[in-house]
Amino acid sequence: MRMKRLGSLLVVMVFFLGVGRENHVYAAGDIFERLSLTGLAAVQVVVEDLAPDIIQDGVNREDIKAAVEQQLQRAAIAVEPQAEHAFYVHLNTVKNEDGSYSYGLSLQLLQLVMLLRNPGLVTWGTTWSISHVGSVTAATVSSIEPLIARGVNAFIKDYQAANSTPG
């Protein structure tokens, strides 16, 4: 029990030590992540529910979803509400005592995958991801939206590289 609590404390400490300095943790960008995007026909965009306090300070889940969908569509990536695969946006925020926010942002592509050890089992798997942690003041929470757009651009770049035909 003590080890479990110690492990949880370590995870929280690592998160908050990095929060004050806008750390970028980008997708591995390895060949397997890019190859997993080959032939991807369409995605649905899923934006996780936001914390009530960040909503009160002006961040809107539906606006984020609409912006991500438009960005993908402008890049000729089909967006369908019932697509088998999901472009997933998770913004986790904590409002600090001084009114600033610590946040963790994760963008992922979730695809249906088969396990090699049991090909009859199909489940969701993250095949592409990008993450960012940082902090913003309540007055500048809108600066998170350009971070989301940059993450979507990274996805688009990898998608286009995976689906370009050699000329």
Question: What characteristics describe this protein?
Answer:
167 residues, alpha/beta, Rossmann fold, six-stranded mixed β-sheet, 6 strands, 37% helix, 33% strand, globular, disordered N terminus
Distance between the termini: 59 Å
Count of folded domains: 1
The shape, in one word, is globular
| CATH hierarchy class name | Alpha Beta
Provide the CATH topology: Rossmann fold
Adjacency order of strands in the biggest sheet:
1-6-5-4-2-3
Q: What would the average pLDDT be, to the nearest integer?
A: 84
Summing up helix and strand content along with how strands pair, one would put the structural category as: alpha/beta
Low-confidence stretches: 1-28
CATH architectural label: 3-Layer(aba) Sandwich
